[in-house]
Structure prediction request, 161 residues.
Amino acid sequence: MKRTILVIATVLCLGIAASAQPKAIGGRLGSGPIALSYEHYLGGINFGELNLGVYTAHEQVGFMAEAIYNWVLYEPEWTSRGEWAWYAGPGLTFGSVPYNKVDNPAAMFGVVGQVGLEYTFWFPLQLSADLRPRLCYVNDSLWEHGLSHGFIPTISVRYHF
Prediction:
């Protein structure tokens, strides 16, 4: 009985702490897929970012999912209203990419980095621009595989709450 009460109390405390942190949801646009983006601040100025994207190429549809942990490196005070932040961090990516064959999409997974600049307005709007280097292992079929890389600039617009 004591364990049950302790587990319930812990879950409730974690839920309250998670809901009290600032969040942002919106979209990302760049040379990669168009993505839905979610940021969740983690008990301070650092934040986690999740992105889910869909794109087409070679008459196929692919998807991508990324999870990145960002450290806020510097918060310059360039304006009297709103907040600026330089951030960078590592992450993981996976998905299904349209590759060089119409009938054979490729699975991919890899590591991604991110460095960017973000501005949060005094009203609930957040804009950011970042560069995202990526190195992925791509499995085209059972017999073909290799590495894929990219350096993707993106722009994000999010509702900050």
The mean pLDDT is 82. The domain at 23-160 is CATH 2.40.160.20 (Porin). The chain has one helix and eight strands.
